[in-house]
Amino acid sequence: MKPNKTITFHNLKKNGSRYFCWISFILLISLFPAPNTYTRTVSKTASIILPKSIDLSPPPSYPINQKGDEAPQVSALGVIIKDIPSGATIYVKNEKTKFSPASTTKIITALVALDTFKLDDIMTVKSVLNEGKTMGLQRGEKLAFESLLYGTLVHSANDAAFAIAENYPGGIEKFVVAMNEKAQKLNLFDTHFANPAGFDDQNNYTTASDLAKLALVGLSNKTFSKIVGTRAITVSDVSYTYFHDLKNVNELLGKVPGVSGVKTGLTQEGGEILVSEINKNSESILIVILKSSDRFGETIKLIDWVFSNFVWKNIRDITPTIR
């Protein structure tokens, strides 16, 4: 026979105290339920931190060839034109072909030196260099690093570039190593340097694309940008015994409105080279020409072509709306 599970009055009386306790407990639970942690209401919201709104700058305008005229024919074998704010490439010609950088090498010479020295550091001229363009430094002459930097970038003085390298820890050899390490860090994989001045050497080469990248890094440095835009300056040694009149080799500075640098180059192997920053009509472009027979005239042609053909439009105005 199955056991009888029915609660009888006799059983309730027999176990009355035990059942009473359980019933009382159940009643208390029903009268005062525990809060439901999944649905309970938050009484205060002051402690909730909402993310701040993100203030995104509007995207830069993008150059569009509205007239459609083709770029003018130039003798330069390597050319690249870039819109600086957007990074857009406007025109290229053999941008990956390797050429001698000539004195545009001094761009990375300046950047390596700026990584190492302070502008008021005093440097001693350890040897006299008379090859190519110089500022007339004398052996034993002491100058501020800033003065040698002006000589290197404005006057394109080879003796200034070598004087900076000689004062680098480890001398010229270690300085050249640092130049190539800097190039690798900047992802200039088609570029190599053999000396701080840019003398022709089979191990001294770059491309229009790499040279544009290097110039843009230079222009992001306020000291570099100010110096390459200087037309002329006179510097002296610390004793005011020797004075050096420095004149920028870039003939377009002060001649063509908007041109504000960057660097020239000229060797037998490299031909005529010019890297130019142009700020015009609130727009900024960079032009690099390598191995040219008329670097200044051809740069002017390219400037005129860009600003007579291209208009800069907001990217939202040229991108079709997706619904």
UniProtKB/TrEMBL annotation:
Keywords: Cell shape, Cell wall biogenesis/degradation, Hydrolase, Peptidoglycan synthesis, Signal. The keyword Cell membrane does not apply. The active site is at residues 103, 106, 156. It comes from the Bacteria. GO terms for biological process: cell wall organization; peptidoglycan biosynthetic process; proteolysis; regulation of cell shape. The keyword Nucleotide-binding does not apply. Residues 67-291 form the Peptidase S11 D-alanyl-D-alanine carboxypeptidase A N-terminal domain. InterPro entries: Beta-lactam/transpept-like, Peptidase_S11, Peptidase_S11_N. GO terms for molecular function: serine-type D-Ala-D-Ala carboxypeptidase activity. Substrate binds at residue 263. PANTHER family: D-ALANYL-D-ALANINE CARBOXYPEPTIDASE, D-ALANYL-D-ALANINE CARBOXYPEPTIDASE DACB. Belongs to the peptidase S11 family. This is Peptidase S11 D-alanyl-D-alanine carboxypeptidase A N-terminal domain-containing protein. It comes from Candidatus Gottesmanbacteria bacterium RIFCSPLOWO2_01_FULL_39_12b.
